[in-house]
Amino acid sequence: MRFLLLCAFSLLAACQTHQVTPPPAPIAPQGRDHTDLGVIRELATGRTLTPQALVERLAAAPRVLVGEQHDNPDHHALQLWLLRELAAQRAQGSLLLEMLNPDQQARVDAAQAATRADQPPADAFKALVWQANWDWSVYGALVTYALRQPYPLLAANLDRAQIMQIYKQRPVLTGQASTTQQVQATLLDDIRESHCGLLPEAQMPAMLAVQQQRDRRMAERLMAAPTPALLLAGTFHVRKDLGVPLHLKDLGAGEGNAVLILAEAGKSVTAESADYVWYTAAQPQQDHCAELRR
Q: Please, are residues 234 and 67 in contact by the beta-carbon 8 Å criterion?
């Protein structure tokens, strides 16, 4: 009898587990023949996971950080898929975006309230004063979906005025995890590379301060957001060894966070930088530095 009861409970638990839908097909044109395409890996163990297993693991975390390559449409399609699948497992508490600034929050709140009242804005791009540097063609579907949801859509970045103030007068960053020489040296190298070595060295300390204050703001917003909270941001921002997770640790919220990096097949992601990686198709390589040097 006891065996039969245990079996019955096991079957009931299995029935209550939501089976995820198939992830979207690749959109980006390159890397489709790579052996890692579509592979999801738990980096601490090297174990390959199914989409179902990944969603179940992420659903158990109060704070999930997802890193993207901004111009890769596969990453945005997977983010939208993940939002839907997580909400099917448990109620979503909030969604935070690097792509939204605090001075847009009132417009986001108004658009979300109108959408919930079946009066969505005719043009969400204009209603939100969406920033043109974030390509609406890849972000629009996700943002429009988020406006329809019962949980809040929240700004996670700094306003331009705040960034300019940091640039002029660098605030002191507190905490042990985010202020180590190794962390800051690695970030400085990335800033130099991403700006093609064209920035004067005298500007580097200010650029580093802006980067780290943006990470600190994202950490603060995550801690204040209703849980379970999901942050979507660029890969460097969510890295465990460089970005927001270090600031969460410095603020006393280092536990209970899960980091997933969406990476193009062929790129390396280590256990030091993330908990999980999901390999996608790739965008064509562009030489942005050549354009800047013209």
A: yes
Residue type, 206: A
Mean pLDDT along residues 208-231: 98
Q: How high is the pLDDT of residue 225?
A: 98
Going by pLDDT thresholds of 50, 70 and 90, the confidence category of residue 8 is very low
Report the C-alpha gap between 264 and 256 in whole angstroms: 26
User: 74 to each of 12, 27, 262, 280, how far by Cα in Å?
Assistant: 35, 6, 9, 7
Q: How many residues does the chain have?
A: 294
CA–CA separation, 46 vs 79, rounded Å?
22
Confirm if 232 and 73 have CB atoms less than 8 A apart.
no
Q: Where are the alpha helices (DSSP H) in the chain?
A: 2-16, 51-59, 73-89, 105-116, 124-127, 136-147, 160-168, 181-194, 204-224, 235-238, 244-250, 288-293
Domains and CATH numbers, the chain: 34-284 (3.40.50.11550)
How far are the Cα atoms of 141, 147, 233 from residue 22, in angstroms, in the given order?
A: 18, 24, 24
- For residue 279, give the H/E element and its range: strand 276-280
- Provide the 3-class DSSP secondary structure of residue 261: strand
How is 53-69 classified by DSSP, letter by letter?
HHHHHHHT-SEEEEEE-
| Cα separation, 114 vs 107, whole angstroms | 11
pTM of the entire predicted model: 0.93
Q: What's the maximum distance between 2 C-alpha atoms anywhere in the chain? A: 79
Strands 63-68 and 257-264: parallel
What backbone phi and psi angles, to 5 degrees, belong to 118? 60, 30
Digit-coded pLDDT (tens) for 150-184: 999 999 999 999 999 999 999 999 999 999 999 99
